[in-house]
């Protein structure tokens, strides 16, 4: 039996029904006619692709908005002791201070308790809202919280001190040089202080502990199955050649005496003066498999006040990881000398780093 017609109800209802059908056909026509469709529903202009800089800013903002990231930094005792001592020694009562990237506001709070007359605590992440709450809770005075990226910060008068913690695992990968030198050139008094300003970068031949070592796939032979043909399939993705690590047990030992491959002073550095190529030599003091270069840094305030992320220092700052730049399999013997070249496309973009070594004649 057919279902009752919805059109029961006489000529008026019939007329309404026809009108609805007509509207339906019109809409279908528009939807299926490309030309009419684009006229009635114009396609929005495609959004411009974010630049590398914008992408990095977005990543940085959301990364530091997470409580756990802030917790790791605050729980890093060598780090917090270093900053507390640096501020106590070098921020004079009455100073005007910028705290670039204040996070939870901890360094701004130290500066305020030290007697700073005014602290501009800036951050581009929503973590700034927590910094305000914490400052109120701890009765921290003389701090103005400003939600901004440092490049957009404007102040009426220059400051005495720029305080910051902008060091990445590879030292340069949180845009420290660009951010600090920009603020320095625009908003630091002549003779003003950057805390911290001096840094050393290390890039040391390393052996990974055997129990943790993972060879390149083309160096593998698993129960007689030979992977050497994979040599032809080497990954193009530069990330493959970087090992991020935080676990101190991973590094067995350094093959030579560490020595900084680069030293910078943010008080005077011009970003364009950063070298594009570093050449350095290492004399092997302990034989072993050469698995890569371990990259870490040291920040220095005074001769007796520094902070480092070396995986071999038990007093290291705990919240930084370190990085290993993988090399092709090699075995070095005590007395070998290797000449190393580190080429840098763009310092903050670690995937633009390239490295190679040659053994010098003994
Ligand atoms: C490593 S955390 C340090 C937080 C805090 N100063 C501390 O010592 O615990 C860096 C902070 O800087 C912020 N930041 C990074 N670059 C920035 C920039 N150019 N302008 C403003 N904030 C920035 C991040 O959102 C993050 O909260």
Give structural notes:
The protein is α+β, with helices and mostly antiparallel strands and 362 residues long. The chain has two domains: 52-195, Vaccinia Virus protein VP39 (Rossmann fold); 199-360, Distorted Sandwich (Hnrnp arginine n-methyltransferase1). Helix content is 26%, strand content 30%. The protein has helices spanning 11-32, 34-40, 52-63, 67-74, 77-90, 106-113, 127-137, 176-187; strands at 96-100, 118-123, 143-147, 159-164, 188-195, 198-208, 221-222, 225-226, 242-245, 251-254, 262-265, 277-283, 288-302, 305-308, 322-332, 337-344, 353-360. The strands form four sheets. Strands 6, 9, 10, 11, 13, 14 and 15 form a seven-stranded antiparallel sheet that branches. A hairpin with a 2-residue loop joins strand 7 (221-222) and strand 8. The radius of gyration is 30 Å and the shape is globular. The site of S-adenosylmethionine has 19 residues, from helix 3, helix 6 and strand 2.
């Amino acid at each position: 039996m057919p279902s009752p017609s919805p059109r029961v109800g006489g000529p008026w209802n019939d007329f309404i029904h026809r009108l609805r059908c007509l509207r339906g056909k019109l809409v279908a026509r528009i939807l299926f006619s490309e030309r009419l469709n684009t006229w009635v529903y114009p396609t929005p202009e495609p959004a411009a692709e974010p630049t590398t800089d914008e992408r990095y800013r977005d990543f940085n903002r959301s990364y530091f908005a997470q409580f756990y990231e802030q917790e790791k930094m605050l729980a890093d005792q060598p780090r917090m002791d270093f900053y507390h001592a640096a501020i106590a020694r070098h921020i004079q009562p009455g100073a005007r201070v910028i705290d670039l990237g204040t996070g939870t506001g901890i360094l701004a709070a130290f500066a305020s308790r030290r007697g700073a007359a005014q602290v501009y605590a800036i951050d581009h992440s929503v973590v700034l809202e927590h910094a305000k709450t914490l400052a109120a809770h701890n009765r921290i005075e003389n701090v103005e919280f400003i939600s901004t990226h440092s490049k957009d910060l404007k102040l009426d008068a220059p400051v005495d001190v720029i305080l910051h913690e902008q060091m990445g695992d590879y030292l340069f990968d949180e845009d420290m040089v660009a951010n600090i030198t920009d603020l320095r050139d625009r908003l630091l008094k002549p003779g003003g202080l950057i805390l911290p300003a001096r840094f050393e970068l290390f890039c040391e031949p390393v052996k990974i502990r055997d129990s943790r070592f993972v060879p390149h796939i083309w160096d593998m032979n698993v129960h007689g199955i030979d992977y050497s043909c994979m040599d032809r399939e080497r990954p193009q993705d530069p990330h493959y050649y970087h090992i991020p690590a935080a676990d101190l047990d991973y590094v067995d030992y350094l093959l030579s005496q560490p020595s900084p491959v680069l030293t910078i002073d943010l008080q005077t550095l011009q970003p364009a003066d950063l070298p594009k190529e570093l050449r350095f030599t290492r004399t092997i003091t302990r034989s072993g498999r050469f698995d890569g270069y371990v990259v870490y840094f040291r920040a220095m305030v005074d001769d007796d006040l520094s902070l480092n992320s070396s995986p071999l220092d038990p007093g290291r700052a705990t919240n930084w990881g370190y990085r290993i730049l993988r090399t092709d399999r090699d075995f070095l013997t005590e007395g070998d000398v290797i000449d190393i070249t580190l080429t840098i496309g763009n310092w903050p973009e670690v995937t633009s780093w390239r490295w190679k070594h040659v053994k010098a004649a003994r």
